Please model this.
Amino acid sequence: MDATEVKQFLIRGVKRNPGGTYPNKEWGFGMIDIYRTFDSLRGEAIQR
Model:
């Protein structure tokens, strides 16, 4: 796994406000949710 893949998994796991446009200056891609990030990783590993 390289840095680009890590970035994509972190972005996949963020929490976002429904009405927002992302990325933005205030929140970037959203609030990091580590649990969702690892859940996304686990789901990816199961599919391989």
